[in-house]
């Protein structure tokens, strides 16, 4: 059987080799690092979680998004020992998307006393296209978290936008420390089919948060360190199909320059990306939380 080469495959492979290995671990320049516990796509499951300073859930708490399902997950999250707990919804958490419920009232009926304002969030913070400043008493640190539940449309589900819309333009504050989205950016932990959003990838390049946590594409679970320097951005453009072979000579020069800069102990700001999906592609529990420190 002959393998099928994707268009521009050789160009993408060469570009990837040039950026591979040019990312260094973050400099531990902060005395009091925050321990962050990341989960996503629990779909009613409640995995055992390690202690930490901040607990993040990147959506799809539930399977059907009913009031009772969501309330059960909120009680579980609220019982965790973390100083702060921040969540967003996912496309399965339909109760949070009022426009979707109104358009699908026959499929997702919501009875009296069963709407979002009736939920008991306990000590859990819910974000929907908004940011919050979190102060940590133990370390004295303050971080800005921005959360948004939206993903590109593929089935009739909650919080979805058209792929041809410029949804993420000027949406994420530039001073964001932690970005919490349900779906992944294109080309980063988004599965073999590259199911991530190109517009989200470009938005992350612009604001360059220290940490980006998402889920949605279960098979993409994992973590990645990225330095959004000129070399990396050219590679991202090649992956998106907006640059061609003429970029390679310039990438070679940028590669050499990044090596020289690293010899002097200098480096660009590093962003850690985490796909924290807990369930496997078949919706079976396959892993627990991913823990990081910033």
How would you describe what is shown here?
There is one protein chain. Helices cover 23% and strands 19% of the residues. The chain is of the alpha/beta class. It has a six-stranded mixed beta sheet, with no helix packed on it. The N and C termini lie far apart (47 Å). Residues 1-6 have low confidence and may be disordered.
How would you briefly describe this protein structure?
The chain has helices spanning 9-19, 67-78, 98-103, 198-207, 230-240, 247-263; strands at residues 35-39, 54-57, 84-87, 124-126, 130-135, 142-148, 151-152, 160-161, 178-181, 211-214, 222-227, 270-275, 290-293.
Distance between the termini: 47 Å
Strand content: 15-25%
Q: How many individual β-strands?
A: 13
Q: Give the SSE string.
A: HEEHEHEEEEEEHEEHHEE
The major sheet is characterized as:
6 strands, mixed
Mean pLDDT: 87
By DSSP (H or I, 4+ residues per run), the number of helices equals 6
Shape descriptor reads globular
> Could you name the ranges where pLDDT drops below 50 across 5 or more consecutive residues?
1-6
Question: How do the strands line up in the largest sheet?
Answer: 5-6-9-10-12-11
- Which structural class best describes the helix and strand composition? alpha/beta
* Residues in helix, %: 10-25%
